[in-house]
Amino acid sequence: MTYRNKRIIMNNIIMTLSTISAFIGLGFLFWILGVLVFNGIEALNLAIFINEGAPPGYEQSGLKHALVGQLLIVLYATAIGVPLGVMAGTYLSEYGQGSKLAETIRDISDIMMSAPSIVIGAFVYAIIVIPMGHFSGYAGAAALAIIMIPIILRTTDDMLQLVPSTLREAAFALGAPKYKVIIQVVYRGAKAGVLTGILLGIARVAGETAPLLFTSFNDNFMNTDMSEAMASLTVTMYNYATSPYEDWQRLGWAAAFILSMFILGLNIIGRLFLLRKRGK
Q1: Which among 274, 160, 254, 264 has a CA at the least distance from the CA of 202?
Q2: Which of these, 143, 137, 140, lies nearest to 120 by C-alpha position?
Q3: Torsion-angle region of residue 133: left (phi > 0), alpha (psi -120 to 50) or beta?
Q4: How much is the pTM?
Q5: CB-side exposure of 81: number of CA atoms within 13 Å?
Q6: Nearest alpha carbon to residue 215 among 82, 275, 126
Q7: Distance between CA atoms of 190 and 280, rounded to whole angstroms?
């Protein structure tokens, strides 16, 4: 057998094993999604969005309190994390090129992206919850923002660096100051990629449970006061799904379905923006 034939056989074996592995992975993915969709849609109804939480056995029980709480916490986290992440990414790309500080920040952000979320929750618990003396929605938003910032920072940094330097030079040649070049030229050229990073960052934190257990805790009743303990869809889903009551378990499946579809939708929108940019 010649060397060329050996390479062809080896290539076919690796390709076959890779294809089988991919189909196995997809099989598990569709299995999980199938179980989630089947149980989630079966438990889903309009009352879930209208009614608040209730004790086990009550027919008029829903997830309104958890949906509102999750929305508020994620919105506050987005308001904190997006500006900080975009500005930090802008500094790395436009002002800190080649500096040791920029490289250090990049290394730290990479470490933060892989840090367990429960560790971040414990950190926020130590610096916010303990001094305040109680759980709060603000603490939950702070924990999610800390998780979000490195994702948006790295995405913004990478997307801005993809903008051709010739565009910057042309703007400078016309007499535009640096801040106008960044806002009117660089941001416009990278807006699709930056927006994709923001959406992926929101999707990443929207499904977090562990940090909220340490920070916002939970509440079985409607509450919009961010300075107090607040319900979240993720923690409520965990509590309901692990309870011994069938009606709460159904609500847990409904919460899992709603949350999964929300995160899936954000990821799809982000990918579409990225594909649209590449298509241009």
Answers
A1: 264
A2: 143
A3: left
A4: 0.88
A5: 32
A6: 126
A7: 12
